């Protein structure tokens, strides 16, 4: 037994090593331009950012590169030196301490890195794209203060702050013909969204296609189901198959926050209580103002307390006014035709105004009407008969996904 002890110990050790080997993680596949840990340990690195007005060639030479090498590096890349934005991050590295630079990395975008290496024949560039992985999620939120807060509530575990903001604006865009998300939501309203999420290994996230949504207000839900239209974009239809698009948008500014609503108020300049015949949208000076519907410009110029103003006559007899403008968009003058969503002017503070905002009015048969009521959504055009089977299949897929818990969901056949 004593003579066999070394053999037994050796066999046990080999068995332990075999089991440990089985538990080792699979080797990670290297992306183009990626270094092994051992290589990183030997190399030196310098990181920098291009300043406003700084030439990239100057930055490279200031960081130790020979001017001829700096010129050759820029010549090898697909970058246009005249169009390189300030803030471009870069990394210069060498093989070992004291050695000349052998690699320069330009971090052009969140998923794009241009790697330039010194080779026998000179500097060689490799333009690499990091792969995005796509999955599908459901999130839910309840309105407490705003759409942003509701999206934060539901999406914080799954999306970066920037991606959550992007999702909130995607929802607002889908419903912009039916609901003005900045002023018509009430506490307790609920939102649910089925959407594609794209992720990088770095942890970066972004929003892909919104496949479906549901907005519940006052106990009634307006659903939105995406129906591809063949050009890479989608149209959205409610649960009855009616288009969510209509004749008018619900708000004349895309980034909006209302400072006062229609009705009696104390006029901020005149100091008297008078009927405020419209709605004020508080927004930074220069924010684009868009027409809420197709029409013809009946007036564009200066008009008393309105300051710079645009007035548009629409085919159904409605007239809309946009006042206190800083200026007008190109081509906006009396008689010009405009299309829904077209930029017509820019937020300002002209006329009787205490600060930058847009004053917006709707007139029906020559009388000012509360925009909130005058622009109550009407159903858009219905689905074509040929689209109905595809729509029903996509609606059923969304309904199945919404029955699953929040987070990553499995879709039925699409």
Question: What topology emerges from the helices and strands here?
Answer:
Elements: H1 5-23, H2 37-42, E1 44-49, H3 56-62, H4 67-76, E2 89-94, E3 101-109, E4 112-119, E5 122-129, E6 133-142, H5 147-155, H6 161-174, E7 190-199, E8 205-217, E9 220-228, E10 234-237, E11 257-260, E12 263-266, E13 273-276, E14 279-282, E15 288-290, E16 295-302, E17 308-313, E18 318-328, E19 337-338, E20 343-347, E21 357-364, E22 367-369, H7 371-374, H8 388-402, E23 407-408
Antiparallel strand pairs: 1-2, 2-3, 3-4, 4-5, 6-7, 6-23, 7-8, 8-9, 9-10, 11-14, 12-13, 14-21, 15-20, 16-17, 16-19, 17-18, 18-20, 18-21, 21-22
Helix pairs in contact: 3-4, 5-6
Plain-language structure description:
It is a single chain. This protein has 414 residues and is an alpha+beta fold. It folds into 3 domains: 37-129, Nuclear Transport Factor 2, Chain: A (Roll), CATH 3.10.450.350; 133-246 and 385-408, Nuclear Transport Factor 2, Chain: A (Roll), CATH 3.10.450.350; 257-374, Glucose Permease (Domain IIA) (Distorted Sandwich), CATH 2.70.70.10. Helix content is 20%, strand content 36%. It is built from 8 helices and 23 strands. The protein has helices at 5-23, 37-42, 56-62, 67-76, 147-155, 161-174, 371-374, 388-402; strands at residues 44-49, 89-94, 101-109, 112-119, 122-129, 133-142, 190-199, 205-217, 220-228, 234-237, 257-260, 263-266, 273-276, 279-282, 288-290, 295-302, 308-313, 318-328, 337-338, 343-347, 357-364, 367-369, 407-408. Strands 11, 14, 15, 16, 17, 18, 19, 20, 21 and 22 form a 10-stranded antiparallel beta sheet that branches. Strands 10-9-8-7-6-23 form a 6-stranded antiparallel beta sheet. It is globular, with a radius of gyration of 30 Å.
């Amino acid at each position: 037994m004593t003579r066999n002890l070394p053999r037994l110990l050796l066999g046990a050790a080999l068995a332990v090593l075999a089991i440990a080997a089985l538990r080792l993680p699979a080797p990670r596949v290297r992306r183009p331009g990626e270094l092994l840990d051992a290589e990183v340990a030997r190399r030196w690195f310098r990181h920098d950012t291009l300043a406003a007005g700084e030439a990239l060639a100057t930055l490279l030479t200031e960081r130790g590169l020979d001017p001829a090498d700096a010129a050759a590096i820029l010549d090898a890349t697909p970058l246009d030196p005249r169009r390189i934005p300030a803030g471009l991050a870069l990394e210069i590295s060498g093989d070992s301490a004291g050695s000349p630079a052998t690699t320069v990395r330009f971090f052009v975008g969140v998923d794009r890195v241009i790697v330039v290496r010194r080779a026998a024949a000179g500097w060689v560039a490799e333009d690499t794209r990091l792969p995005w992985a796509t999955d599908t999620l459901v999130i839910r939120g309840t309105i407490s203060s705003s759409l942003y807060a509701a999206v934060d509530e539901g999406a914080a575990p799954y999306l970066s702050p920037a991606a959550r903001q992007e999702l909130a604006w995607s929802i607002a865009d889908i419903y912009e013909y039916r609901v003005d998300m900045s002023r018509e939501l009430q506490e307790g309203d609920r939102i649910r969204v089925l959407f594609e999420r794209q992720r990088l290994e770095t942890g970066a996230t972004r929003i892909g296609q919104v496949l479906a949504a549901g907005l519940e207000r006052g106990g009634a839900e307006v659903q939105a189901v995406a129906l591809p239209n063949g050009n890479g974009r989608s149209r959205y239809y409610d649960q009855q198959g009616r288009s969510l698009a209509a004749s008018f948008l619900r708000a004349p500014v895309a980034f909006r926050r209302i400072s006062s609503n229609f009705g009696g108020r104390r006029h901020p300049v005149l100091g008297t209580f008078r009927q405020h015949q419209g709605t004020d949208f508080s927004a930074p000076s220069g924010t684009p103002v868009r027409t809420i519907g197709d029409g013809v410009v009946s007036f564009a110029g200066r008009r008393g307390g309105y300051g710079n103003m645009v007035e548009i006559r629409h085919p159904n007899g409605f007239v809309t006014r946009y006042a206190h403008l800083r200026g007008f968009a190109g081509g906006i003058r009396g008689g010009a035709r405009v299309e829904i969503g077209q930029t017509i002017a820019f937020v300002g503070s002209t006329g009787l105004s205490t600060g930058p905002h847009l004053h917006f009015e709707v007139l029906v048969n020559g009388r000012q009407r509360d925009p909130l009521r005058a622009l109550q959504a009407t159903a858009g055009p219905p689905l074509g008969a040929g689209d109905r089977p595809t729509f029903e299949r996509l609606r059923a897929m969304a309904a199945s996904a919404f029955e699953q818990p929040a987070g990553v969901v499995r879709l039925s056949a699409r």
